[in-house]
Amino acid sequence: MNVLGRITAMPTLPAPLKGLREVAYNLWWSWNPEAQRLFEQLDPGNWKRFRGNPVKQLLETDPDRIAALAEDVSYLGHVEAVVESFRKYLSSRPKSTTPLIGYFSMEFGFHESLPIYSGGLGILAGDHIKAASDHGLSLVGIGLFYHQGYFRQELSPDGQQKEVYDEQHPEELPLTPVEDAEGKPLRVGVEFPGRTVWVTAYKAQVGTVPVYLMSTNLPENAPDDRYLTARLYAPGQEMRIQQELILGIGGVRMLRALGLAPTVWHMNEGHAAFMGLERIRELVASGKPFPEALEAAASGALFTTHTPVPAGHDSFPLDLMDRYLGGWWDKLGISRDEFMALGLEQKSWGPVFSMSHLALTLSRAANGVSRLHGEVSRNMFRHLWPGLEPEEVPVGHVTNGVHTWTFLHPELLGLYRQHFPPQWREQVEDPELWRTEDLPEEDLWRVRNSLRAHLVREVRSRLFEQRKRNGEAPARLREAEKALDPHALTIGFARRFATYKRAVLLFTDPERLVRILRGAYPVQFVFAGKAHPQDDPGKSFIKDLVAKIRDLGLEDRIILLENYDISLARLLVQGVDIWLNTPRRPMEASGTSGMKAALNGALNFSILDGWWAEAFNTRNGWQIGDERNYATDEAQDTADAQALYYTLEYEILPLFYARGAEGTPSGWLNMVRESIKSVGPRFSAARMVRDYVNQYYIPLAQRSARLSAQEGVRLKEIAAWKTQTKSQWSNVRLWVENRGDVMVNGQGLNLRAFLSAPNLPENTLRVELVVRRSSGDLEVLPLRPAGREREALVFEGSYLPHRPGSYVYGVRAIAVHPELSGPHEVAFVKWA
Ligand SMILES: *Cc1c(COP(=O)(O)O)cnc(C)c1O
């Protein structure tokens, strides 16, 4: 058929079931299993096929079945309870303490039925939104609706990955089209070379937080343009810049069209950085000069980076920038060179425009996603603040967290509820409320066994389906039905197959591995993961893994499941005993899957990288290797593999199988309790969102209001001061009397420094003594102004080390305006 359009007929629900519809269109159900159960009961077979999508379920359920349920007293009771709890949730959120926050992200992972995420970044964004709703934050999400989504992975028997893109119809999803006053799709235009691309949006309501997902799939666009938002991370730099223009520029315009005016603008990754350009353009169009417009736009913006390696940052060749952003410098009232300087980076092959650099230029707060990643990021972006020491680079961190209610298994939730204080449900970030010591050993063990058994059943069924689809022999199908032992120690490893994640580290010493797996203690593994469609090394990793498992005859002990998505993630983190993670340090910015596992009573066994480097306390799991960086990858792989085997064989297995009289492993369960307690609250999205509010959202909102007050007099001042200081800084001279080595014996180092800084306001100049102890600690001490000698300002000070040791020191001048976001917002630094 030549399809002209689609017809969607929502059933008219009988009065007592009307609430189902209300619940279906709010993703609140995605973290409320009792709500999901209501939809599942409509038709369990469909429910599985539709990947738990309640809207599709309502559309496809037989009307007779609906009519019958409308008479079913027990079902109606459940509906009533769920609807009531849903309404109560919406009406009882805490009062927001912040003005509106706009949260931009290229991907959002809310639920498996809405495949607009690829992995960790998207799930994190989804959890941020869910926790923002729990918190009652005034926040709006902006992203893209990909009508072919991210791919579903199918694996052939030899591990060949096939990418399947299923067409997603918004009218069959928990989305509502955003319409204008006339009921037509609301749309905004984004300028592309030689044309305007029209963008519309669908609203996903997530608790109290709306998320607008934009799409170019509109008939008024040229056929090719309708596919701009078809797929997440579609290949090619041109596609990437196009999608990022839609996200950043289209996103701001969409918010305006909706009448929404965020005060704080949060870029989740550099993908969204073009938003800053559009916000500056608006201000320039309203009459502000570019420098003030930039200060104003940046004052409310936060940039969260998730990338630990320089090559991971998005960047575009300048000719692509010319093609797509060619008109922009005129709109902003600056030159092409000034425009390019906003994001310019020199690579070995020439200059590029870096989205992370742009995001840093157009924000006044930035953060990494774990303590270690904050440090890695400060070093990575150091070159943008020349003259500062790495720890002074103004990039902080908020460690990621996971949405407790999305990932905690209902059975465990029941157990926790029984034994934790009642306020726990609303204050999940408070460690005091996680009374894991009160969880009875037998109950905890019973639930753990039940979750493992559930995992084993589900692995069998998935493996069966996987093999059946691949046309494998009946014997192989029968094996699948008996795969795994529900009582054996079960280890999960699931993540993107990127080489740095080292999925095959386990196979470094095959003989040793086989010896452990065929030893006295039963142990089994479940692997899963996708490789990015363009990542050929990642794909061959999967085949390699399959070949290794087969060659070693370990197919009964190591299972590889296809299509790692949120639902498989939930299944694995809830059912395994050990969560294994073997990234090459420090390549894991944070990682969050291990947090989900710990929440469910699994123990982490991981490289001290990302979040685990700050969570591990020797009593809540195991480390692999230590906090050392190795000279070569091979050396690190060998050392880490040896550590892995040793700990597994001599610590983990004996502890798991050390059973008391009742058959419970007390030592193991004590570690489980410690793990739940130390990870559950601290690595929750509730804690994460609270940190964002206190560290960033509130201060940014306050500062940006202050700068814009009184017709932006402070903005003008800062902009003028930056321009002036920049133009004069090369004339600044700093020299120091009595420099050189000193031996301190009771008496300190005395310094006199002279600063010549013509045409710069004295009150913004500081001279500092910077001391670094050989162990690495940095101290910065201001020198006192001590008048003037001829043309120079004089500064004095003395320094006596607190304790013996060897130190290096230097003296520097910096310029700091009192209205800046911090002393190192901009690096005007001159070392003597
Ligand atoms: C939690 C989650 C991730 C993030 O996992 P890490 O490997 O810890 O970064 C990725 N994919 C899915 C489907 C998840 O649920």
UniProtKB/TrEMBL annotation:
The modification N6-(pyridoxal phosphate)lysine is found at residue 596. Its cofactor is pyridoxal 5'-phosphate. Its EC number is 2.4.1.1. Keywords: Allosteric enzyme, Carbohydrate metabolism, Glycosyltransferase, Pyridoxal phosphate, Transferase. SUPFAM superfamilies: UDP-Glycosyltransferase/glycogen phosphorylase. One of its GO terms (biological process) is carbohydrate metabolic process. It catalyses: [(1->4)-alpha-D-glucosyl](n) + phosphate = [(1->4)-alpha-D-glucosyl](n-1) + alpha-D-glucose 1-phosphate. Residues 13-114 form the DUF3417 domain. GO terms for molecular function: glycogen phosphorylase activity; pyridoxal phosphate binding. The keyword Transmembrane helix does not apply. It comes from the Bacteria. NCBIfam families: more_P_ylases. Belongs to the glycogen phosphorylase family. Phosphorylase is an important allosteric enzyme in carbohydrate metabolism. Enzymes from different sources differ in their regulatory mechanisms and in their natural substrates. However, all known phosphorylases share catalytic and structural properties. This is glycogen phosphorylase.
